[in-house]
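Section 5: illustrative case.
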């Protein structure tokens, strides 16, 4: 059974930084394309960043230059380094794993507020 567990969310002031982690179990992590999504209240879930099994990355325009996605296949873990955070980054952030099926984590809350 594939499980994804996010951590690292919290309350941060505008301009601050957070690093999210997503640990994957029950799957051969290195074969999976991974992604971070987020969902703010009243909004649809949106793609934030992706990293393929080969290490290629892509980002939503709204986070380019501020967020960095990475993965450590030896730890079955994906990361999202978030810098220069803005209030509009406030959302629940979800980890996503995709190969033949798609799996989701439970989400971690990120709140950017002074």
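Designed sequence:
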């Amino acid at each position: 059974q594939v499980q994804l567990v996010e951590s690292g969310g919290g309350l941060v002031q505008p301009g601050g930084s957070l690093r999210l982690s997503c640990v994957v179990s029950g799957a051969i992590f290195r074969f999976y394309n991974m992604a971070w999504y987020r969902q703010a209240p009243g909004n649809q879930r949106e793609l934030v960043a992706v990293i393929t099994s080969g290490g290629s990355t892509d980002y939503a325009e709204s986070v380019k230059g501020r967020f960095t996605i990475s993965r450590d296949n030896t730890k079955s873990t994906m990361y999202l380094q978030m810098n220069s955070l803005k209030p509009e980054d406030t959302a629940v952030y979800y980890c996503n794993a995709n190969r033949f099926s798609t799996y989701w984590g439970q989400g971690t809350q990120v709140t950017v507020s002074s």
